[in-house]
Specification:
Elements (H helix, E strand, L loop, with lengths): L3 H8 L2 H6 L10 H10 L8 E5 L8 H5 L3 E6 L2 H10 L4 E4 L15 E7 L7 H12 L2 E14 L2 H11 L10 E2 H10 L2 E9 L2 E8 L2
Parallel strand pairs: 1-2, 1-4, 2-3, 4-5, 5-6
Antiparallel strand pairs: 5-8, 7-8
The chain binds S-adenosylmethionine.
């Protein structure tokens, strides 16, 4: 698993390297995954959208172009520079999501909180804690959309792991939907999951109370 410095080094060449590696684990179907998230955002113009682990902004740039107000959080300064180049009017926060949500965002409310290929950087127990914290900054009818390397069940993960062989990263903790579903219900979210490619999917969370 890359640390902050690793992501800083990757930032300049990130978009190109993704374009060259959208076959096989981990980025199989990358652009379809991003489109699946973007299509869940109805009438982006004027919407406040927080992108967690924004990277170079590939996910939210399309929504920015359609008039959304983009807020991005990332612990890599260099990734933020790339995102800011794409979205000069965006607001960016250099912050480690292991620390939760930056104080400066705690009085904000977002229509959507999205994330792509970043949530696996949190340990499983920390994912639930982090998602619970997001609830406080989400409007009543808001949506949290988490796209990542993820699976409906453990059998699907195991299959992908075997197929990926030496490429599989044992340090990363991918969402297995049916193992997380009840915890999500307990913290107040109704969850829906759809598998987009063999190794990635989109988790949609809506308040249930
Ligand atoms: C694989 S990239 C994905 C970037 C972008 N969302 C995308 O879909 O292309 C993961 C991003 O998460 C960020 N990241 C990883 N761990 C993080 C952490 N603990 N706190 C904040 N950002 C983190 C990295 O700096 C990087 O920009």
């Amino acid at each position: 698993m890359l640390d902050k410095k690793g992501f800083d080094k990757w930032a300049g060449g990130y978009d190109k390297s993704i374009a060259e590696s959208s076959k096989g684990y981990p980025f199989e179907g990358y652009y379809d995954v991003l489109s699946a998230v973007q299509s869940l955002i109805k009438e982006p113009s004027g919407k406040r959208i927080l992108d967690v682990g924004i990277g170079t902004g590939l996910l939210t740039n399309e929504l920015y172009k359609q008039g959304a107000n983009i807020f991005g959080l990332d612990f890599s300064e260099k990734m933020i520079i790339e995102a800011k180049n794409k979205m000069p009017k965006g607001s960016f926060y250099n912050f480690d999501m292991n620390e939760g949500i930056p104080d400066v965002l705690k009085n904000n409310k977002f229509d959507y909180i999205v994330s792509s290929y970043a949530i696996h950087h949190l340990r499983d127990e920390d994912k639930i804690k982090f998602i619970k914290g997001l609830k406080d900054i989400l409007v009543e009818e808001g949506l949290i959309i988490l796209a990542d390397v993820s699976f409906e069940n453990k059998e699907d993960l195991d299959e992908c792991k075997i197929e990926s062989g030496y490429k599989w990263d044992n340090d990363e903790e991918y969402i297995v939907f049916n193992e997380l579903k009840n915890d999500l219900l307990e913290i107040g979210f109704e969850a829906e999951y759809s598998q987009v490619s063999k190794c990635a999917g989109v988790l949609k969370l809506k308040r249930n109370r």
